[in-house]
Design goal:
Blueprint lengths: L1 H6 L8 H10 L24 E2 L3 E6 L14 H7 L7 E3 L5 E3 L2 E6 L5 E6 L13 H12 L14 E8 L2 E6 L6 H4 L22 E7 L3 E6 L13 E6 L3 H10 L4 E3 L13 E6 L3 E7 L9 H10 L2 H7 L5 E3 L24 H10 L6 E8 L3 H15 L3 E8 L1 H10 L5 E7 L4 H5 L16 H12 L3 H17 L4 E6 L1 E6 L2 E2 L15 E3 L1
Parallel strand pairs: 2-11, 16-17, 16-18
Antiparallel strand pairs: 1-22, 3-4, 5-6, 6-8, 7-8, 9-10, 10-11, 12-20, 13-20, 14-18, 14-19, 15-19, 21-22
Helix pairs in contact: 7-9, 13-14
Membrane topology: Lipid-anchor
Organism: Paenibacillus ehimensis
Protein name: ABC transporter substrate-binding protein
């Protein structure tokens, strides 16, 4: 990666706004999160000489929702397609932004105009050179310039995008947007390209080969990649195995080489031919309720459920202690914005839970369905513990395992559910983490509405002072906790098992598998 690091020297001097955002992105780099046991993510290393080439099989638990990067919402999709697509900027394993398709940029003093110079020699997987018109097309599509409906809320503040020449892109905003820089990691695709959902074309270190639903997604080395000697591997197969036991069997038998998100309880059973890494991952596991549906529209019911859930028991029993207790939708990895103490807002108390339920008119409790994506055993196990805990206060839960595609369609998009458990992946910027709770957000599958929260979120988005911005997001977290928007459980450690002869694997504060740095040794 030597050439990449050297290219960072070519960045144009940035304004205070850009520096502030970079600091925000770096907030958790290399530091153990509070309550995590002190684990710090380190690149996997293997003794021996580097071998160029070869293939690797990586286990993933779900199918992608869309291959088109501008339509995809599932974290599991970006987990794989991170290797195929790139934006003007790109994050590294510390959460820092560095140049990708862009080589330099300037931000106007008023924070409203961004001017990018493109890197020479960047090509799409088709072999065509990337031009400013491709960037313009991609980001106008995300901003909904033609439809009036942005595909990404991060681009809703875009007023115009211009390409004065083949190597220059100028983006003008309607208002200050302190998180906009991180939005420019969004994928660039060829101008006018309409087949991204079947034959993805990007600029990343690997290019798309095939996708067989329920079986695998295969990518291969981009021989024209602009970073010298990257990647090392020739081919990556993401093997889709929803069942953890079947995934473990595939790893042990040699059918697979890397098992991300392996259950903590399975780590001790691995043989000497494997190595493991474990660290907090900037993810929020939560149980959310459909607030538009009774009885969850009553804050007293939501608070009662929070009091009835013993998070410590879940962390100890399900994560085997490898998790950081949360009180709102933010991981301690985002240390600049994280508000410590909220994890104690609802200390476990069946007495308080019963009292609040009685006050809300549910003295004898009620029945509800807890829908859980069946491909995530961690969430299924959590659901079983929570069902037992809520049973103690009279709430009878029916656990409904649903396939991933059903969860996305019925729960996430259709908002047709009582309760669900899911992990919300972390982002580089706090606004991108919290904006799904905005009253008008299309991703607000909780049906949460709070003018007070909306105001705090807007202040954080437009505030240029870094300290005031941090306070706005801390206020937003406080509101989510106070109004019991969900039951925030933990940031579970990301456990990864891989062959001992593999080296270079990196963990990110994002839900991605970066295969560009991985290589075999002998």
């Amino acid at each position: 990666m030597k050439r990449q690091r050297n290219n960072r020297k070519h960045f144009t001097a940035m304004t205070g706004l850009a520096i502030m955002i970079l600091l925000a992105a770096c907030s958790g780099s290399g530091k153990p999160a509070a309550g995590s046991g002190g684990e710090t993510a380190q690149p996997a290393k293997a003794a021996g000489e580097k071998v160029n080439g070869g293939s690797v099989v990586v286990i993933v638990p779900q199918d992608p929702d869309y291959l088109d990067p501008h339509l995809a919402v599932a974290a599991g999709t970006s987990e794989m397609m991170f290797n195929v697509y790139e934006g003007l900027l790109k994050p590294n394993e510390k959460g820092e932004l560095y140049p990708a398709i862009a080589k330099s940029y300037e931000i106007a003093p008023d924070g409203l105009t961004y001017t990018f110079k493109l890197r020479e020699g960047v090509k799409f997987h088709t072999g065509n050179a990337v031009t400013a018109e491709d960037v313009k097309y991609s980001y106008e599509r995300l901003a909904g310039q033609e439809t009036g409906k942005p595909l990404s809320p991060a681009f809703a503040s875009v007023q115009s995008i211009e390409a004065p020449d083949a190597a220059t892109v100028v983006i003008k905003l309607k208002e200050n947007n302190a998180s906009f820089l991180t939005s420019l990691t969004a994928s660039v695709i060829p101008k006018g390209y309409q087949d991204s959902n079947k034959k993805p074309v990007g600029t990343g270190p690997f290019q798309f080969v095939e996708y067989l639903p329920g079986q695998r997604l295969v990518i291969e080395k981009n021989k024209n990649y602009y970073v010298q000697d990257v990647p090392s591997l020739d081919k990556i197969e993401f093997r889709i195995i929803p069942d953890q036991e079947a995934a473990l069997a595939a790893l042990k038998s040699g059918e697979a080489d890397i098992f991300p998100r392996i259950g903590t309880e399975k780590l001790d059973g691995l043989g000497p031919e494997f190595q493991t890494v474990s660290a907090p991952q900037n993810l929020v596991q939560l149980m959310t309720y459909n607030i538009a549906r009774k009885p969850f529209d009553d804050i007293r019911v939501r608070q009662a459920i929070n009091y009835a859930v013993d998070r410590d028991e879940i962390i100890k029993g399900v994560a085997l202690g490898k998790g950081t207790k949360l009180g709102s939708n933010m991981s301690p990895i985002m240390s600049r914005y994280y508000l410590d103490g909220l994890q104690d807002t609802y200390k476990y108390s069946t007495e308080k839970a019963k009292s609040l339920l009685a006050e809300a008119g549910y003295k004898d409790g009620f029945s509800a369905t807890l829908s859980v994506p069946s491909n995530y055993q961690f969430h299924v196990d959590t659901a079983q513990v929570i069902a037992q805990q809520l049973g103690k206060v009279g709430i009878k839960l029916k656990i409904e395992p649903v396939e991933w595609a059903v969860w996305l369609d019925r729960v996430y998009k259709g908002r047709d559910y009582d309760l669900t458990i899911i992990g919300l992946d972390g982002k580089l910027d706090p606004n991108d983490i919290l904006n799904k709770y905005a009253s008008d957000s299309k991703n607000n599958f909780f049906n949460y509405k709070s003018p007070e929260f909306d105001q705090a979120l807007k202040q954080g988005l437009t505030e240029l002072d870094p300290n005031k911005r941090a306070e706005a997001y801390k206020q937003a977290q406080t509101i989510l906790a106070k109004e019991a928007a969900a039951v925030y459980i933990m940031d579970p450690n990301l456990n990864v098992a891989l062959k001992k002869t593999l080296s270079g694997y990196k963990q990110y504060p994002l839900y991605v598998q970066d295969m560009s740095s991985v290589y075999w040794t002998r």
